[in-house]
Amino acid sequence: MPTIRDAAYGMEEALRQVIEYVMNRKVHLKKYYILIHAKTYDTDQILSKVVIMHRQPPKLLGTVCYEIDNTMGTQRRLWVLPFDFPIDERLLDVDKRVPDSIIKSGEGMLIIN
C-alpha cells in the first residue's frame, strides 16, 4: 500500500515534469512566471492548473509560483503557499482575540476557491 511519502514523491515528480515541459516550450520568452494551483473536488484526485504569466502574480493561497528568466538562465521558486495556514490550537477558542501578527501575515492574501 502506498504511503504518504510515496504520494509526496509522486506529486513532486509530476510537478517537476510540468515545469520542465513548460520551460522547454517557452524558451523564446525572456521572463515569465509559472503559477500552479492544485485543488481536490469530491474525488481522491488532485487536479492542477498551470498558468503562464508575463507579470508576477499576487501571492495566492494554495499556489506554487516559479520565476523563469531565460536571459539570465535562472529558475527560482518564489513561493509555496498551502490552502490554509496552520493554526495554534489555543486560537480556536472563540472568546480569545487573534494576535495582530497573524492578522497582518494574512493581509492582501487572495484565496482561489
Care to describe what's here?
With 113 residues, the chain is α+β, with helices and mostly antiparallel strands. It has one domain (4-83). The chain is built from 2 helices and 6 strands; from the N terminus they run αβββββαβ. It has helices at 4-25, 100-106, and strands at 31-40, 46-53, 60-61, 63-69, 74-80, 110-111. The chain has a 4-stranded antiparallel sheet with strand order 2-1-4-5, covered by helices on one side. A hairpin with a 4-residue loop joins strand 4 and strand 5. The longest helix is centred in the first third of the chain and has 22 residues, at 4-25. The radius of gyration is 17 Å and the shape is globular. The protein starts with a helix and ends with a strand. The mean pLDDT is 80.
How would the blueprint of this fold be written?
Layout: H1 4-25, E1 31-40, E2 46-53, E3 60-61, E4 63-69, E5 74-80, H2 100-106, E6 110-111
